[in-house]
Amino acid sequence: MKAFDLSVYLVLDPGLCAGVGMVETARRAVAGGVTMVQLRDKRADTAAMIATGRALQAALAGSGARLIINDDVAAAVALGADGLHIGQGDMSVAEARARLGAGAILGLSVETPALAAAADPALVDYIGAGPVFATPTKTDHKQPIGFDGLAAQVAASRLPAVAIGGLKAAHVAQVIAAGAQGLAVVSALCGQPDPEAAARTLAQAVAQARRSV
């Protein structure tokens, strides 16, 4: 059984995290309640992803937070990472699963209810649903869908969903009300003066929102 918690999902950005670095940002954010950490660096080659991934594994050891690699399946396999996240334009889900093995977590980005419905629970473990809002951290994203669109994607899928796209602590209640398990954030944590405190605010908001549903 794959145990993972989508409540507060940090997507690392090397530019936004430049002040203290991705590894230290992740360490502090996990101390505040982040449950999943995704290493996303579109400019890094596989060797660089592996090097950063190893540093992240050391920093997160014993925390219970899961390390997910964005797109680079070779790095994910070399690291023995907890999982991989891919988009619709990356390798096929079947190929990703074959290379990862059955035990790893596989996440898939979706942008429409049809894509959400098509995500196969035999291969995929969770969906990244969105984008809820436009975000400068991912310039090639699809048209923002808002919370109604998020709810439609979540309802269409047979998998747990994490919402993504310009989300902040103020949006947590609406994310949870739409049926998502949690929210994936970049700038809400990367580049913040106190990533631990910011993560704690998010984690507490998720817990409170779940009690209110």
TrEMBL record:
Residues the entry annotates as binding 2-[(2R,5Z)-2-carboxy-4-methylthiazol-5(2H)-ylidene]ethyl phosphate: 135-137, 166, 186-187
Cofactor note: Binds 1 Mg(2+) ion per subunit.
Classification via CDD domains: TMP_TenI (cd00564)
EC number: 2.5.1.3
SUPFAM superfamilies, sorted: Thiamin phosphate synthase
Cofactor(s) of this protein: Mg(2+)
Catalytic EC class: transferase
Residue intervals of the Thiamine phosphate synthase/TenI domain: 8-189
Protein family per UniProt: Belongs to the thiamine-phosphate synthase family.
Listed name of the protein: Thiamine-phosphate synthase
Function per UniProt: Condenses 4-methyl-5-(beta-hydroxyethyl)thiazole monophosphate (THZ-P) and 2-methyl-4-amino-5-hydroxymethyl pyrimidine pyrophosphate (HMP-PP) to form thiamine monophosphate (TMP).
Superkingdom to which the source organism belongs: Bacteria
Catalytic activity: 4-methyl-5-(2-phosphooxyethyl)-thiazole + 4-amino-2-methyl-5-(diphosphooxymethyl)pyrimidine + H(+) = thiamine phosphate + diphosphate; 2-(2-carboxy-4-methylthiazol-5-yl)ethyl phosphate + 4-amino-2-methyl-5-(diphosphooxymethyl)pyrimidine + 2 H(+) = thiamine phosphate + CO2 + diphosphate; 2-[(2R,5Z)-2-carboxy-4-methylthiazol-5(2H)-ylidene]ethyl phosphate + 4-amino-2-methyl-5-(diphosphooxymethyl)pyrimidine + 2 H(+) = thiamine phosphate + CO2 + diphosphate
Record key words, sorted: Magnesium, Metal-binding, Thiamine biosynthesis, Transferase
Pfam families the UniProt entry points to: TMP-TENI
GO molecular function, one term: thiamine-phosphate diphosphorylase activity
Positions bound to Mg(2+): 71, 90
Signal peptide limits: none
Pathway note: Cofactor biosynthesis; thiamine diphosphate biosynthesis; thiamine phosphate from 4-amino-2-methyl-5-diphosphomethylpyrimidine and 4-methyl-5-(2-phosphoethyl)-thiazole: step 1/1
Designated gene of the protein: thiE
Binding site for 4-amino-2-methyl-5-(diphosphooxymethyl)pyrimidine: 38-42, 70, 109, 138
